Amino acid sequence: MSVFDQYIKQMEEGMKEYKSTSPAVLIDVREEDEYSEGHIPNSMNIPLSVIENSIEQRIENKNIPLFLYCFSGARSEEACMILKRKGYSHIKNIGGIQFYQETVSK
């Protein structure tokens, strides 16, 4: 299995877990212009650049499961660390949208 295949598998498994977890929130941490070019359906856009100062206004419940993604998985990993420091308890980085194999919304 190539590294590329592993990233696809991470995204597929993350989406499967997100869809089977209720309630849960899917968060795209890319910037607004990237989000508008195409995003996973039903995701919420909270860019990494503002997540630290805006997450608590957007998502008050710190126990709700949060599934994060970006383009490659790097920014979503950084966002996960920020959210953990803020007290959110159920956070998962599902990787990068570049490995998402389904149709995106615009």
Automatic annotation (TrEMBL):
InterPro entries: GlpE_sulfurtransferase, Rhodanese-like_dom, Rhodanese-like_dom_sf. SUPFAM superfamilies: Rhodanese/Cell cycle control phosphatase. PROSITE patterns: RHODANESE_3. Residues 20-105 form the Rhodanese domain. This is Rhodanese domain-containing protein. It comes from Eggerthia catenaformis OT 569 = DSM 20559.
